[in-house]
Design goal:
The protein is an alpha+beta fold. It is 25% helix and 30% strand. The protein has 3 domains: 47-71 and 107-237 and 402-455, Bira Bifunctional Protein, Domain 2 (BirA Bifunctional Protein, domain 2); 253-383, YbaK protein (Alpha-Beta Complex); 474-565, Rossmann fold. It binds one RNA strand through residues 9, 11-17, 19, 34, 36-37, 85, 88-92, 108-109, 111, 140, 142-144, 146, 151, 199-202, 218, 317, 319, 411, 413, 441, 443, 479-483, 511-519, 521-522, 530, 532-534, 541.
Length: 566
RNA sequence: CGGGGUGUAGCUCAGUAUGGUUAGAGUACCUGGUUUGGGACCAGGGGGCCGAAGGUUCGAGUCCUUUCACCCCGACCA
């Protein structure tokens, strides 16, 4: 492509509201253009990057034996009613009616559509397994789109769905997809981690997220210092803590604790570590039809992990409660404990099972119990509801956990029969018995990957594309367009590289050197061949974007040298 | 969905407290010239329904009302 003919509107200034590197540089370098909140148009450079990513996904999916399909973007609302997700998704579903007043939904994900396509077509276990995917625009009417391509309302996603006759086969495919996704991200040149994730409302027996490591990521993940273990903090587990503080010595007793309400107060009052205190976090668990107050107990040194708490209750949502609501139930904020208290349902963190020497509220104004032995509550409901802390021990080895930020670019689920059962998508097994398909689902955010590449690969000058994702591999810069010799060499090299199927840009604009260099760095071509002053000595320079170093090579060798480099 | 902010040239923004010539700057764009290794310089030029609607006033970018859009914090996010 000739730069003089290309539509690449670069700008000196970023949109005032952009804060993320990917948003700033993709806007400034002329890749994307915002149309409305959460809606972006892809300009030629972005389109090329997207195609690169899609090609790699297609190649790896083909290797893994998955077939590409394309489902319609507009989906009938009836399917969403069948699965029950029309309520669950709520306002995120963009709904509208056609001229016949039929209700439709813009597809935010395509489980229902895929199941609908397969049901009654795949009817025997002999036709299984099958793995179908598409790369398609999705629409979710997010409450708050932000960060450019990172969280748009309209975005491109690769979504795949596999159908199996048994759980074991789904597990096998899940592992195969995890491996394929790993290969894709490696090929794209990304530093990533596959982590255990919360399966959330979608259910199923397990899910993993693919996290591109970047400080700007919206998710916090816990990773082990020694082994491969990594997990979203929403789902992270631990085996214990590094050092258990010395236990306080006391007899079981009810102790007067005037105005001692917080964990910090307790620590100071009794001179004990927060480890031996019990924290009560009261929340209202909201179910489909009603709601109730639930008391969550964790150690004073821990914090409640709300996603875990929600899962432990099976609630659709958990929300804060006021002191008044607690008092109405007969609970005394600041002095709530699990003993001798029957006002509300409680969930106790599993780390408190059989805990000794604990201090907890006595459910009486100004009193706490000391030296509580939790084994008296062995019948209570225990669940993992505490957030892991940095420094806790890895659940799989003796390493320690630390936190890092990640961008979720993929999420794979073991769905099981959730959707096939709801949509009555069944096959006949060996015994001629109807069974719902066992399914897996595998998502990857293509447009988000574009942003993730830049989040991980940029500097103060702009984008630094990886070789697998760059819109053009080589940029030939003719330093001074009025120098006929420079133009001749540039054109010759341009033709030669094109003939060799190298993706090449020829910067033939009538601009000054500095302008064109800044532009090239902003866009982020991996290599720029500078044809300029040194041509008198028969030399040109190859500038590498990543290192910002340039080497001089003879004009006769530059072609073979650049072929070696790319 | 709660709280806050901003809408003026393609872009980044002044101007609005206290209403008053023809609405500004930088940048980008067009013409001509000088330049040509890190976003050059000189001269000239085009470009605005001051987000929209209504109101107050002799007079509104500026005051009032309504509305729309966009952004930020939070909640939400298969």
């Amino acid at each position: 492509m000739r730069r003089s003919r290309a539509f690449i509107p670069t700008t000196k200034e970023a949109p005032s509201d952009a804060s993320l590197a990917s948003h700033i540089y993709l806007s400034r370098a002329g890749f994307i253009s915002q149309v409305a909140s959460g809606l972006y148009s892809y300009m030629p450079l972005a389109k090329r990057v997207i195609k690169k990513i899609e090609n790699i996904i297609n190649e790896e999916m083909a290797k893994a034996g998955a077939e590409e399909v394309e489902l319609s973007f507009v989906t009938p609302a009836t399917l969403w009613q069948e699965s029950g997700r029309i309520e669950k998704f709520g306002k995120e579903l963009l709904r509208f009616r056609d001229r016949k007043e039929n209700l439709f939904v813009l597809g935010p994900t395509h489980e229902e559509m895929m199941v609908d396509m397969v049901r009654n077509r795949i009817t025997s276990y002999k036709q299984l397994p099958i793995n179908l995917y598409q790369i398609k625009t999705k629409f979710r009417d997010e409450a708050r789109p932000r960060f450019g391509l990172m969280r748009g309302r309209e975005f491109i996603m690769k979504d795949g769905y596999s159908f199996h006759s048994c759980v074991a086969d789904m597990d096998r495919e899940f592992d195969a997809m995890e491996a394929a996704y790993k290969t894709i991200l490696t090929r794209l040149g990304l530093d990533f981690r596959i982590v255990e994730a919360d399966s959330g409302a979608i259910g199923g027996s397990g899910s993993k997220e693919l996290m591109v490591l970047a400080g700007s990521g919206e998710d916090t993940i816990a990773v082990c210092s020694k082994c491969e273990y990594g997990a979203n903090v929403e789902a992270a587990k631990r085996s214990g803590r590094a050092a258990i503080p010395e236990a306080p010595v006391a007899e079981f007793n009810k102790f007067k604790t005037p105005n001692i309400k917080s964990i910090e107060d307790l620590e100071n009052f009794f001179k004990v570590d927060g480890y031996y205190t019990m924290k009560c976090v009261a929340k209202r668990a909201v179910y489909e039809d009603d709601s109730e107050i639930v008391l969550f107990f964790v150690r004073g040194c821990d914090t409640l992990q709300e996603v875990k708490a929600q899962n432990a209750t099976g609630a659709l949502d958990i929300v804060d409660v006021s002191e008044e609501e607690l008092r109405e139930l007969g609970l005394i904020p600041g002095f709530i404990g699990p003993l001798e208290q029957g006002c509300a349902k409680h969930v106790i963190d599993s780390d408190l099972r059989d805990a000794k020497s604990m201090i907890c509220g006595a459910n009486e104004e100004e009193y706490h119990f000391v030296n509580v032995d939790m084994s008296v509550m062995s019948e209570a409901y225990y669940a993992d509801i505490a957030a892991v802390n940095e420094g806790d021990s890895c659940p799989h080895c003796n390493g320690t956990l630390s936190f890092t930020k990640g961008i979720e670019v993929g999420h794979i689920f073991k769905l099981g029969t959730t959707y096939s059962a709801a949509l009555k998508a069944e096959f006949l097994d060996e015994n001629g018995k109807a069974q719902p398909f066992v399914m897996g689902t595998y998502g990857m955010g293509v447009s988000r990957l574009v942003a993730a590449v830049i989040e991980q690969h940029h500097d103060e000058q702009g984008c630094i594309w990886t070789k697998a994702t760059t819109p053009y591999m080589v940029n030939i810069m003719i330093s001074n367009i009025k120098e006929v010799s420079q133009v001749e060499i540039g054109e010759e090299l341009y033709a030669k590289l094109q003939a060799a199927h190298v993706e090449v840009m020829l910067d033939d604009r009538k601009e000054r050197f500095g302008f064109k260099m800044n532009d090239a760095e902003l866009i982020g071509f991996p290599y720029t061949i500078i044809i300029g002053k040194e041509l008198e000595n028969g030399l040109v320079q190859i500038f590498e974007r990543k290192t910002k170093e340039s080497i001089s090579v003879s004009k006769d060798d530059v072609f073979s040298k650049i072929i070696d480099l790319i």
